[in-house]
From TrEMBL:
Primary localization: membrane
Lineage of source species: Bacteria, Pseudomonadati, Pseudomonadota, Alphaproteobacteria, Hyphomicrobiales
Species this protein is from: Pleomorphomonas diazotrophica
Membrane topology: Peripheral membrane protein
Entry GO CC: plasma membrane
InterPro entries recorded: AAA+_ATPase, ABC_Ni/Peptide_Import, ABC_transporter-like_ATP-bd, ABC_transporter-like_CS, P-loop_NTPase
Family: Belongs to the ABC transporter superfamily.
MF (Gene Ontology): ATP binding; ATP hydrolysis activity
PANTHER family reported in the protein's UniProt record: DIPEPTIDE TRANSPORT ATP-BINDING PROTEIN DPPD, OLIGOPEPTIDE TRANSPORT ATP-BINDING PROTEIN APPD
Pfam families assigned: ABC_tran (PF00005)
Protein's cellular compartments: Cell inner membrane
SUPFAM superfamilies linked: P-loop containing nucleoside triphosphate hydrolases
Descriptive protein name: ABC transporter ATP-binding protein
Domain ABC transporter positions: 5-252
Domain of life: Bacteria
């Protein structure tokens, strides 16, 4: 199956200094790939490069093919056309994706309209909005559609952000720490939701997290970054079960020790 995203030998520099070096990874339809590593290891920059949104002053080299288009060296208007169509993103803090002054139903409706316009389809916007809200398990959608973001819980806001991402009907979803701001129960619900959506819509998922237990439940394959370099990658059971690199072993042991400490305290 063709890859939705193929990154080859990606190097990202800021004033000549490499922040990400020689990273390669790919995501195919229906595949869930994790990008892990400590804070500052280059996970978010890799994701931003994939959608052509590196901060000013940074340069990328290597190759990034998103939906069969080369991102590196392309004009922003060409890559911009892929954002919200081929690829959608969700972030740790859903408020960054939401307009605080607009009712949630209206925000999802705008995403539905944009996509319908691009596709040249006519849609029953209201029905599609309610359908998406049901899809992401938002309770009482007809009532909640009239709520403003501040009137919703963190978990509900993240579900709304996921509904907006889905309204784009992306083939690839990039989720950067999407559950980090949520309590453990809501975290598990959102992870299950993402898993179901990826399976049912046959989307690809690039899932970024520093939280190993979360990654362990969310992805099939994992890529480990350390100080901007890829130290290993492979199926989740292999990488977490038999880490080959001492850095990965350290991450796995730290997560295990943390789990045991929590277990002992309960
Ligand atoms: N706008 C920027 N200007 C200069 N350096 C930056 C900028 N953004 C990130 N960096 C640097 O690039 C490196 C990688 O950052 P990145 O945000 O990709 O890390 P990360 O793995 O996503 O971390 P976290 O888990 O904390 O989000 C870090 O050393 C960071 O300090």
């Amino acid at each position: 199956m063709a890859d939705l995203l193929t990154i080859e030998n990606l190097t990202i520099r800021h004033v000549g200094r490499p922040l990400v070096s020689d990273v390669s990874l790919s995501v195919a339809a229906g595949e869930r790939v994790g990008l892990i590593g400590e804070s500052g290891s280059g996970k978010s920059l890799t994701a931003l490069a994939a959608i052509g949104l590196l901060p000013d002053g940074m340069t990328a080299s290597g190759s990034i093919r998103l939906s069969d288009r080369e991102v590196i060296g392309s004009a922003d208007r060409d890559v911009a056309g892929l954002r919200g169509t081929a690829v959608a993103t969700i972030f740790q803090e859903p408020l960054t994706a939401l307009d605080p002054l607009m009712r949630i139903g209206k925000q999802i409706a705008e995403a539905v309209r944009r996509r319908a316009h691009r596709d040249g389809r006519s849609v029953d916007v209201q029905a599609e909005v309610l359908g998406l809200m049901v899809r992401v398990a938002l309770p009482d959608p007809a009532r909640l559609a009239r709520a403003y973001p501040h009137e919703m819980s963190g978990g509900q806001r993240q579900r709304a952000a996921i509904a907006m991402a889905l309204a784009c009907r992306p083939s690839l979803l990039i989720a950067d720490e999407p559950t980090t701001a949520l309590d453990v129960t809501t975290q598990a619900e959102v992870l299950t939701l993402l898993e179901t959506l990826v399976r049912e819509e046959n989307m690809g998922l690039l899932f970024i997290s520093h939280d190993l237990p979360v990654v362990g439940t969310a992805v099939d394959r994992v890529v480990v970054l350390r100080a901007g370099e890829m130290v290993e990658q492979g199926p989740i059971a292999e990488v977490f079960g038999r880490p080959r690199h001492p850095y990965t072993l350290g991450l796995v042991e730290a997560a295990r020790a943390f789990d045991q400490a929590i277990g002992a305290a309960l």
